Amino acid sequence: MGNLEGKVAIVTGAGRGIGQQIAKKLAEQGAKVAVVDLKAEWCEETVGLVKAAGSEAIGLGCNVAESADVDATVKAVIAQFGTVDIMVNNAGITKDGLLMRMSDEDWDAVLNVNLKGTFLFTRAVSRPMMKNKAADGTSAGGSIINIASVVGIMGNAGQANYTASKGGVIALTKTTAKELGSRNVRCNAVAPGFIQSKMTDVLPEDVKKAYMDTIPLKRFGTAEDIAKCVAFLAGPDASYITGQIISVNGGMIG
Ligand code: NAP
Which residues contact 34 (CB under 8 A, 6 or more apart)? Predict the structure, then answer.
């Protein structure tokens, strides 16, 4: 029996990449998973992985930047599974470019998905999480895990929109922890470093080498490295941890 047996999780951007591994890891620990991505059909592969891990899943199409979509998604999850215990705000995009040439559209697009999307899902799950009760009648609360980034802490040339969105996610995480803590709803962020994925595969070799030179553990991270940390934060072993930003980056920054 896993640490998350009977719990219900929502994972956004779970059709591929880091989100897919998070969905799989939560399922391996017993959670039922609502797999959310822009289009329902993009969720199918991950739904299959969750079921193969012996758990239950539904795939839901949802644009995390659209308030009505987000509210409808949380409603659908509650209709299917009864509640929400774990919320993983993972969906994220990049539209890189130097600040002086960055268009309003590229700024808005990244802020809307990465930061507003995290706010919208956090708002939508906060009430159902506050109402969760354990078998003995005490508050069971919930766990919200936001996927930030090392560059939301350090800044990064060419990523004004992305770094601002992730810095915002870090501040939102701390505020959420303060607002919901008294109802036993915890909120933490994972700040990945350089993780092998479609997002980073496209980078030129010299850029990848420059990153590698800054990583004491001398390897890029994997989606599973992130998923393991998320599963820990979701579960009872992290019951006294809230408002924290956990760096999973091979030692990239101190
Ligand atoms: P990815 O492979 O691009 O996956 C992101 C997922 O989010 C995709 O399935 C994408 O769908 C989905 N998505 C995009 N916009 C959405 C929207 N509006 N509504 C719903 N879903 C949407 O990225 P990843 O590398 O796994 O990254 C996952 C998270 O980790 C992101 O928040 C990212 O910023 C963060 N992160 C990644 C790294 C890294 O090195 N990879 C480092 C630090 C932080 P589509 O199929 O439509 O694109």
Answer: 8, 9, 10, 11, 57, 58, 60, 73, 76, 77, 80, 81, 84
User: Alpha carbon of 126 to those of 85, 181, 216: distances in Å?
Assistant: 10, 11, 38
Which residues, listed in sequence order, are joined to residue 143 by a DSSP beta bridge? 86, 186
Residues with a catalytic annotation lie at: 162
Answer yes or no: pTM beyond 0.85. Answer: yes
CB 115 within 8 A of CB 172: yes
pLDDT digits (tens, 9 = 90+) for 36-76: 999 999 999 999 999 999 999 999 999 999 999 999 999 99
> 141 C-alpha vs ligand 1 centroid, how far in Å?
27
The finding on whether 142 has its CB within 6 A of some atom of ligand 1 is no
C-alpha 13 – ligand 1 centre gap (Å): 6
Query: Is the Cβ atom of 28 under 6 angstroms away from ligand 1?
Result: no
Cβ–ligand 1 distance for 113 under 6 Å, the answer yes
What's the CA gap between 165 and 171, in Å, rounded?
Answer: 10
